[in-house]
Amino acid sequence: SRLVKGLSKTRESIVSGIDSIFSGFSSIDEDFYEEIEETLIMGDLGIHTTEKIIEDLRARVKEEHIKDPSACKQLLIDSIRSQMDLGENAYQFENRTSVVLVIGVNGVGKTTSIGKLAGQMKEMGRSVLLAAADTFRAAAIEQLTEWANRSGVGIIAQKEGSDPAAVIYDAVQAAKARKTDVLICDTAGRLHNKKNLMEELRKINRIIEKEYPEAYKETLVVLDGTTGQNALAQARQFQEVADITGIILTKMDGTAKGGIAVAIQSELGIPVKYIGIGEKIDDLQKFNADEFVNALFG
Ligand code: GDP
């Protein structure tokens, strides 16, 4: 499938390592667990999550009286999957009047992801409006406008440097007047000034709550999957300044660090809602932990 192909680098890095361990050991001993641990850490599942997986694997091996290393593979897959358990992913904003705030630092793929999401919603028959509230860079406004034109959706923008909250205010009024289904807002993510960022997001949230209380609200953070553990650290920082409801993990097609999706769900408890596996509109896919684990190991 497309997902399997998109995740091929991560698949190679984790699965080939794991497979050689399962075939290389004749008994389940400490070295066996250590090698699995190393492989998972190399695959960017993170030390903390990896330790939990190994602990869980040991318990499963004991409980089921497994003696043969090759019989451990399914147990390991189950252990990894269990670390990701956050229940079924919800996409309420798709079928309701909603506002989706999208946050992320420069270069992670924020604009591209918003463009893909807008295009997909439009294809589903929803009316979409974009708000260019990342007003810090003129290029960001231009790029978002290009995506809006390409996808045939409306956009509310002001000039570079204008107040993001003012853009959001305009966009909310326009969304209400046009009876737009989904308003997707490109907002900033300058983490180097967390106090300002927090203030900005608070102001934006206040406007949405006051002007558009009937709208369902979603706050998505975009993270670059190729940065591995840095993506996890970034998510933690965003968690301090916003009520994040989901993650968009991009560029998973170009990286062997895809295991970071496991670490994000396990350590932060935030659902990965979408993954980016390419540059085209259809290359933003809904994330499903079962499919993900199956694509990696199946
Ligand atoms: P922004 O600064 O966060 O808005 O980042 P952009 O949306 O401009 O994306 C930065 C670069 O990453 C662009 O060249 C995008 O085409 C690319 N990109 C974004 N998402 C993906 C993805 O899922 N896969 C790949 N291969 N490239 C991506």
From TrEMBL:
It is a peripheral membrane protein. It catalyses: GTP + H2O = GDP + phosphate + H(+). Its main location: membrane. Residues 271-284 form the SRP54-type proteins GTP-binding domain. One of its GO terms (cellular component) is cytoplasm. It is found in: Cell membrane; Cytoplasm. Keywords: Cell membrane, Cytoplasm, GTP-binding, Hydrolase, Membrane, Nucleotide-binding, Receptor. It comes from the Bacteria. GTP binds at residues 104-111, 186-190, 250-253. InterPro entries: AAA+_ATPase (IPR003593), P-loop_NTPase (IPR027417), Signal_recog_particl_SRP54_hlx (IPR013822), SR_rcpt_FtsY (IPR004390), SRP/SRP_N (IPR036225), SRP54_GTPase_dom (IPR000897), SRP54_N_sf (IPR042101). GO terms for molecular function: GTP binding; GTPase activity; signal recognition particle binding. GO terms for biological process: SRP-dependent cotranslational protein targeting to membrane. It holds the Pfam family SRP54. It is an enzyme of class 3 (hydrolase). Its EC number is 3.6.5.4. PANTHER family: SIGNAL RECOGNITION PARTICLE RECEPTOR SUBUNIT ALPHA. Part of the signal recognition particle protein translocation system, which is composed of SRP and FtsY. HAMAP family: FtsY (MF_00920). Belongs to the GTP-binding SRP family. FtsY subfamily. Involved in targeting and insertion of nascent membrane proteins into the cytoplasmic membrane. Acts as a receptor for the complex formed by the signal recognition particle (SRP) and the ribosome-nascent chain (RNC). This is Signal recognition particle receptor FtsY.
